[in-house]
Amino acid sequence: MNRRRPPILRHAGSILIVLAALALILWGFRPVPRLVDVEPVTRGHLAVTLEAEARTRVIDRYRISAPIAGRVGRLNLEVGDPVAAGEVVAVMEAAASPALDRRHRQQARARIAAAEAELAAARAAVEAAEANEALARAELARMEPLAGRGMVSLTQLDQARAEARGRAAELVSARFGVDRAEHDLTAAQADLAYTGELEPGEQGRLALRAPVAGRILKREFESARVVQAGDPILEIGDPERLEIEADVLSADAVRLAPGMPVWLERWGDPEPLEARVERVEPVAFTKISALGVEEQRVWVIASLVSPRAAWRRLGDAYRLNARFVLWEAEDVLQVPSSGLFRWGEAWALFLVDDGRARSREVEVGRRGALRTELRRGLEPGDQVIVHPDREVIDGARVKVRGTSPDG
């Protein structure tokens, strides 16, 4: 006798398949804990700093320039060579007269001819002035006896005397005119006589000496060349006397003050150097940033505190990073700055509590580069979620990155 199986048994396989599919769907949509990174709340040293690019520079540098126009001989000193105070570092020679082409030579000859004509005219004027002066003297000599006998009025006598003095002055002026014309002729003849050479017997050498002992910091050229008055030739300074210069935004410069500590990093050695702010210059300058933004920046000068042996490999214009310490204190309760976010008008962060994220409003103080002062809200050892994303909300399941599933 055939017994029929109940319907539920006949479809048991299908029901199992459906149940397995539902289980897989529920498994796929189950809430997965978010992986998060955490850092603990700690106590310790905290500093508020300002970083800026900086460079070294020699404190006292001396630029040697050409005092006159001339030719500087070849410079044998190399950059870095030591020099003593008073040592000859360059030699100048008087510049030779420029050579004349055909047109300028003809012009020079014409100037000589004109000067000779002027000299002849000046000499003729002297002869005329001598004749007039002699006539005036003779006339005065005749008037004086006649005036004594009353035959000539005193007015006529005074006129004769004035005429004699005037003619004498004209003679003196005419002789000066001859002197001037002779000098003009000499100058015109010199333009033609000395072209492309120095005057015979003229040395024209000038030795330029180092004003202080130091080293050559810069050499404008090497081979001999003609320079004009004021052209730079060499720079001398002592590279063992260095200071630090950094340009910062004017809004940051007002936060700095003389005496503030400075740490110099990334200068080629892992050990930072210590320095102090010497002065903040009271004048700003305009600088275009790499993004094309116009900025007002201020030079800040710092003096090195670390011993010379620690930075003896530094030289002039070496690049480094300056970290200005605006404030620092010990035993400060602090949290990672990357965990903070705005919560209305206050600050908040997420804690990890029994596998879930819990938001906590906190009160913060001074903010450092990576850590922020915590005034209330947490205790040392609390685990703070750093860099929380949008998926991390209050009560969300979280898992600390790097821990086991049971951890």
Distance between the termini: 61 Å
- Which shape, going by the Cα principal axes? elongated
DSSP E strands, number:
21
* CATH uppermost class of the largest domain: Mainly Beta
CATH superfamily of the largest domain: Efflux pump adaptor protein, beta barrel domain
Amount of helix: 25-40%
Structural class: alpha+beta
CATH architecture verdict of the largest domain = Beta Barrel
Contiguous uncertain segments of 5+ residues: none
Mean pLDDT: 85
Largest sheet: 6 strands, antiparallel, barrel
Q: How many discrete structural domains?
A: 4
Number of helices: 5
Model description:
The structure is a single chain. The protein is built from five helices and 21 strands. It is of the alpha+beta class and 407 residues long. It folds into four domains: 83 residues, conserved putative lor/sdh protein from methanococcus maripaludis s2 fold; 99 residues, Efflux pump adaptor protein, beta barrel domain (Elongation Factor Tu (Ef-tu), domain 3); 63 residues, OB fold (Dihydrolipoamide Acetyltransferase, E2P), CATH 2.40.50.100; 92 residues. A six-stranded antiparallel barrel has the order 2-11-14-13-12-15. A four-stranded antiparallel β-sheet has the order 3-10-8-5, with no helix packed on it. A hairpin with a 2-residue loop joins strand 16 and strand 17. The chain is elongated and about 180 Å long.
